Each structure stands twice: as C-alpha cells, then as structure tokens.
C-alpha cells in the first residue's frame, strides 16, 4: 500500500495496531518547538499535515492565529478534541496537501512537521508548489524532514531539499537535526530543519 493512503493513516491514528502512530510523541517535535519558542514573526500561521495537533496547539498557545490541516479525519478529530481540552482555538481542516483548496492562505508563517517526507517522491514538486502558493511574499517556512540517513526509505537528502526549494524561496537554510519517535519521543533519527523565506 502506498504511504499516502488516507485509510492507512486513519487506521494508525485509530490505534488499530494497539498503539499510536510512531510519530505521536505527545508533544511537538523538539526542533520545531524550539523555533516556536524562539518566536516567529507573523500572525497567520499554517501547520501542514498537523496530525493530532501538538504543534498547532503550541502555536495557538503563543497567540498565533493557526490554521491546520491533515488528510486523516481521525487525526483531525483527535486534534480538535485536544485543542478544546487545552482551551485553545485552532482552525482545523480535513484536506489533502496535494489538492489544497484555493481558499487556504495566504499565511505569514508555514510549518511542516513530517508531511513532506510522508509524501511519495513524485508528489514532492506538487506539494512544494502549494507551499509557494499559500505563503505570502516574505513569509517564513519551517520544515522538519527525516534525512536519507534515517533507517526508513522516505528520508530526503539535503541536495533533494535544496533542489525542491530552489525556486520561489530565498535564504534557504538546511541544518542537521533530530526527528523523535515513540510514545516518549526517545527513539531518534537524523533529520533536517529547513528554514526559508518566500
Ligand atoms: C509523520 S506524520 C506527522 C504528523 C504531525 N505533523 C506531527 O509532527 O506529529 C505525517 C502526517 O501527514 C499526514 N499526511 C500524509 N499525506 C498527506 C496529504 N497528502 N495531505 C494531508 N496530510 C497528509 C498524515 O496523515 C500524518 O498525520
């Protein structure tokens, strides 16, 4: 089954295997949480492929106006419940990154915590074109991806990221970082933190 099958993600979020999906660490990925804690400029923020919403909720708790989407309806249901329980407002949507409705955006800041690396390689350019579209000129992008040095086949090489973001983005910085997994986040993998300006 291709990795981008919606039902597969719904089953994982639904705990079909008797455990949560491996990326559910009970908090935002530390590399992106550090970006949020350092402060991002701009009010209108998008969390693309938000999963069960930890990063979206962190952003909203800092006072940003957060829109978030995921194509898994089960993940969005969990995200809405979590945000309500924590008393923050996030505009959550069920939507496909490869067919994002025109009404999304523009945003001042866009986050991607593990969505790009979840897509199939031929889908990458379509998704990056969508990121270009939803970013206002001058917007910042912060993207966390698994690296090709991780033990899974969908990690990206630094050169692939450079190529994907060569068009329409400036000041592209790609730094090595760590992607966390497992219920306590204690399983770690090499990753990339990409920051760029539209
Ligand atoms: C590795 S998980 C990361 C989830 C969340 N951002 C996090 O950091 O915990 C990737 C997410 O992307 C979502 N996803 C995969 N393909 C998608 C697509 N085409 N459109 C929207 N969401 C997608 C999955 O449902 C999943 O929630």
Automatic annotation (TrEMBL):
Q: Which terms in the Gene Ontology molecular function aspect does this entry carry?
A: methyltransferase activity
For the Methyltransferase domain, which residue ranges apply? 45-138
Tell me the Pfam families matching this sequence.
Methyltransf_25
Signal peptide from the UniProt entry: none
Which Enzyme Commission number(s) are listed? Answer: 2.1.-.-
Record carries keyword Transferase: yes
| GO terms for biological process, alphabetical | methylation
UniProt keyword Transferase present = yes
Write the record's keywords in alphabetical order, separated by commas: Methyltransferase, S-adenosyl-L-methionine, Transferase
Q: What is this protein called?
A: Class I SAM-dependent methyltransferase
User: From which organism does this entry originate?
Assistant: Tenggerimyces flavus
